[in-house]
Amino acid sequence: LKEKFLDDLRNIMGLFSDAVQGFHFFREHLLTSSMQTIEMLKKSSPEHANKEYLDNVTYSYGEEITPVHKVGLVTHHEITHINTTSYKDLIERNSSGGENYFLIGNLTIVMIYHLWENTYRLEFEKQLNKKIEADVFGDLAQIRHMILKNNGVLNQKAYKKLRLIKWYEPGDRIILDSQKLSEITKWIEAEVKNFR
């Protein structure tokens, strides 16, 4: 049971790591692409060959859905827009410390705590024939609650209950980077390995 829980924990951390790397590479791609676009615009539309212009260009994610109609050999599809933003905002949210990092860190904590509380805790308590109370899981419960109920901002009440996670003050936005999540993972692994 311990190894299965720890494997699931590592899978969640793998998702976090992959996402963070994806944000980094996507941002690098956007920056390279914008430089190339500026060079192309210098030839075709010099008045638009600048960062300020590109920052305000709309970037939209979309997905083709069922064909709407066919004209000759060309089938026209309706596009479902998933997200539309400015190029500048897209680069910023994929920057280190940007909104995507904030959201994936919070999502990771919610998933870890859900995995513990809704899948493994009762199994461990049955196996060990005792109630499990551990500071790391208590802290995760508080952080998860702040993420879900307080827009990821730590309040005074939750702050007073934290035992291990001491990186934030009341009013701080809970931002969980690779280092903090690595520390939390080590605490969880040590706790679970000591279950007897």
Relative strand content: 5-15%
Largest sheet: 2 strands, antiparallel
Number of helices, counting only DSSP H or I runs of 4 residues or more: 7
Q: Provide the helix percentage.
A: 55-70%
Number of β-strand runs: 2
| Unreliable sequence segments | none
Derived structural class? alpha+beta
State the end-to-end CA separation.
Answer: 12 Å
Radius of gyration: 23 Å
Sequence of strands across the biggest β-sheet: 1-2
Give the rounded overall mean pLDDT.
91
What form results from the Cα inertia axes? elongated
| Order of H and E elements | HHEEHHHHH
In short:
The chain is α+β, with helices and mostly antiparallel strands.
Which structural traits does this protein have?
2 strands, 196 residues, elongated, alpha+beta, two-stranded antiparallel ribbon
3D structure, described in words:
This protein is α+β, with helices and mostly antiparallel strands and 196 residues long. It has 7 helices and 2 strands, in the order ααββααααα. It has helices spanning 2-44, 51-55, 87-93, 99-128, 135-149, 156-161, 178-193; strands spanning 58-71, 74-86. A two-stranded antiparallel ribbon has the order 1-2. A hairpin with a 2-residue loop joins β1 and β2 (74-86). α1 (2-44) packs antiparallel against α4, α1 packs antiparallel against α7 and α4 (99-128) packs across α5. The model has no long low-confidence stretch (mean pLDDT 91).
Q: Layout of SSEs?
A:
Elements: H1 2-44, H2 51-55, E1 58-71, E2 74-86, H3 87-93, H4 99-128, H5 135-149, H6 156-161, H7 178-193
Antiparallel strand pairs: 1-2
Helix pairs in contact: 1-4, 1-7, 4-5
